[in-house]
Amino acid sequence: MPIRLLPPDVADKIAAGEVVERPASVVKELLENSIDAGATDIRIEIRDGGRRLIRVADNGGGIPDDQVTLAFARHATSKLSIVEDLDHIATLGFRGEALASIAAVSQVTLLTRPRDQAMGQFLSLEGGQIRRQEGRGGPAGTVLTVENLFYNVPARLKFLRQPQTETGHIHTAVSHYALAHPTIRFHLTADGRVLFQSTGNGKLLDVLIALYGLEMAEQMLEIQPPAEHGAPEASALEASVTVRGFVGVPALHRATRSHIVLFCNHRWIQDRSLAHAVAQAYHTLLPVGRHPVAVVLLELPAGEVDVNVHP
Ligand code: ADP
Ligand code: MG
To answer: Residue 175, Cα to own-chain centre: how many angstroms?
Structure first.
C-alpha cells in the first residue's frame, strides 16, 4: 500500500484509543476540565458502569459561545499557547485532546454557559460529528454528557469489565480528585445511588472521613511540617518541596500498596520509589508483607515537574 495520510475520523478514533481506555478515563478527563474551569461543585452521574452514561456537571467558567465547537477539535486548548508554557503548567489539561477523543467514540452532549452570558449553548455530537447546535438557557457552568461509550468501536466494548468493576474504577478516580482538591465539592451517583460525596469545606480530613469512614480516618495522623524549614544540608530544591497529608497508625495496615495514595502538585501519581519511601518510614512497625495507609501530597515548583511523563 502507498503511504497515505489517515482521514481525520480514522485518526481521531486511533487517538481516542490512547486517551479513552475505559469509562474511568472519560471521568478523569471531564473532572480535570471542570477543575481547570475553576468549579467548586462537581456532580458526576454514571449508569451501567459508565458505559451507558457519564454526566459531569460543574459550576465552573463555562465555554464562550464562539469556542464551543472548537473545544471538540483535536489539539484545541485554552490552556497553552507557546511551547515554553509546557515548562510551567498550572492546569491539569493542556493537550487539547480529551474532548475530541471522547467525542470520537461516543455520543456527547454539551450544555454550557459562562456566568456573564445570558444564554448558553447546547451542542450534540455523534462519533465526533456535530449533529445539533443551538442557544439554550441553563445554569452557569458546564454539563457534559457522554452516552453509549464505544458504540462505534465494538472491539473496545469487549474489553470493558462488569459494570461494577468499571464503577469501582470511577469511584477510585473521583476519590483521588476529591483528596487532591478538598475545597471542591464532589458528588458521585451510580445508577441513582450516591456512592461518594465530599463537602468541599477545604479539610482533607473530612474527605478522608467521606472516603474511608470515621473509624478509619480517626486512625490517621496528619503529617506535621518540619519544625525548622530547610535543614542546613537541604538543597534549594528540597527546601522548596512541601509534604502534606495523613498517614495511618501502624495498626492500620493493608494487604496491598494501593492504600498509599500519592499526589504531586494536585495530580495523582503512581511512583514505586515514593510509595516505598512511605512504607520505609514505618520501618519495622508493620507486620511483614503488610502495607500502610497514607495520603501524601507533595508540592514542588511547577518547573521541576514534567507533566508529560505518564503518571
Ligand atoms: P485540554 O483540557 O487539554 O485543554 P480538552 O479537550 O479536555 O483539552 O478541552 C478542550 C477545551 O475545552 C479546554 O481547553 C477548555 O477551554 C474547554 N473546556 C472543556 N471542558 C470544560 C469545562 N467543564 N468548563 C469550561 N471549559 C471547558
Ligand atoms: Mg482536558
So the answer is: 9
pLDDT tops 90 at residue 1: no
| d(C-alpha 15, C-alpha 202), whole Å | 36
- Count of C-beta atoms within a 10 Å radius of residue 156: 18
Among 36, 144, 308, name the best residue to mutate to test ligand 1's pocket (greatest count of ligand atoms within 8 A of Cβ): 36
DSSP secondary structure string, 221-252?
EEPPPPSSSS-TT--HHHHT-EEEEEEE-TTS
The residue-averaged pLDDT of 110-116 equals 97
What pLDDT does 14 receive?
77
- Per the DSSP assignment, residues forming a β-bridge with 142 are 58, 112
Residues 6+ apart with CB under 8 A from 36: 60, 79, 91, 92, 93
- Please tell me the pTM assigned to this model: 0.89
CA 95 – ligand 1 centroid, Å: 10
